Amino acid sequence: MATTAESEPRAISHKRTERMMRTLTYVNEQGTARLTDLVRELDVSSATMRRDLAAMEEQGLLVRTHGGVRALDPTTEVPVLLRDSRFRDAKARIAEHAAGLLPAGRYSVAISGGTTAAAVARELATRPDLAIVTNALTTATELASRSNLKVIMTGGFVRSSSFEAVGALAENTFNAINVGTAFLGTDGISVRGGATTHDETEARTNHAMLAHAEHVVVVADGSKVGRVTLAKVADLSEIDVLVTDSSADPEALAAIEAAGVEIQVVPD
Q1: Which residue, 131, 154, 128, is CA-closest to 209?
Q2: Which residues contact 140 (CB under 8 A, 6 or more apart)?
Q3: Which residues of the chain have a pLDDT value below 70?
Q4: Residues 263, 167: Cα–Cα separation, whole Å
Q5: For residues 180 and 113, is the Cβ–Cβ distance under 8 A?
Q6: Rounded to two decimals, what is the model's pTM?
Q7: Number of C-beta neighbours around residue 194 at 10 A
Q8: Minimal CA–CA distance to 63: which of 19, 37, 18, 28?
Q9: What is the pLDDT of residue 243?
Q10: What is the pLDDT of residue 83?
């Protein structure tokens, strides 16, 4: 009975984040939406929708108006707590595969922010003799209690949307440490843009991380392949492997592979 009670809050939270992602997508597509439209579209009560909209406005995702909401910039970065519910199965398969790329024995890795990179960290949680350097607060917190790991957290300014420490302090930490493999999460990867993210400061910090790695592995679900966002993290020439899932655009993958990146697609 205790196990069921403990699992309920997580299930409810997951259901709510998926509902909020659907709400955000609907509002961004429509530009404006009435509360009654959202209640009908999401099949929830008015009280539930009001709570969701209040939370989303607090996170800067939309603006509530009299009787409804209006969209902000539809390219606004989605907070990490909402992103975590998207493409969850694919991210888990990508993470399991990526974690298996590491050699046996004592080793060191760097892990960026992002939900897929965080999933890689969870896959590595039980591995012995592993040092992990990260600027992601969520990853550091989740792994800190593991006595089998050495977890090194960078300093830096914490971005509220991603819970990543960025800026000069984070870059100085990455510049002072050499690692065997860097696992890089990204908002987009393409021939045109390389690996990209929404924030230029985050991009500089992540580039410092991969610049001191012998091997760079990008982990990205198929929705990120072929996509270009604001700030470049790395050229494709700086990336060794892309691990993604079968939903990725085949033409985009072929172009990335032709640029010299090894493509590994995890099965469904």
Answers
A1: 154
A2: 134, 151, 153
A3: 1-14, 73-86
A4: 30
A5: no
A6: 0.74
A7: 22
A8: 28
A9: 98
A10: 53
Percent over 70 (pLDDT), the chain: 90
**Does residue 183 contact residue 175 with C-beta atoms inside 8 Å?**
no
pLDDT given at position 3: 39
- 3-state SS, residue 176: coil
Task: Record the tokens describing residue 210, joined without a space.
Answer: 């991969």
Structure tokens at 218: 């990008």
- The 3-state DSSP class for residue 190 equals strand
Where residue 210 falls (left for φ over 0; alpha for ψ -120 to 50; beta otherwise) is alpha
Tell me the residue length of the chain: 268
- Tokens describing residue 212: 């001191």
- Residue 188 and residue 208: Cα distance in Å, rounded? 18
H or E element: which one contains 132?
strand 130-134
Measured distance CA(78)–CA(117) in Å, rounded: 16
Tokens of 71: 């969209």
Q: How many other C-beta atoms lie within 10 A of the C-beta of residue 18?
A: 14
C-alpha to C-alpha distance for 82 and 240, rounded to whole angstroms: 29
Is residue 188 classed as helix, strand or coil in its secondary structure? strand
The reported pLDDT for the residue numbered 17 is 78
Rounded CA gap, 163 and 157, in Å?
A: 9
* pLDDT attached to residue 5: 39
* Beta-strand relationship, 213-219 and 241-245: parallel
Distances (CA, A) of 85 to 21, 123, 177, 209, 262: 8, 17, 32, 26, 28
pLDDT of residue 19: 86
By CB atoms closer than 10 A (0-12, 13-18, 19+), residue 162 is buried
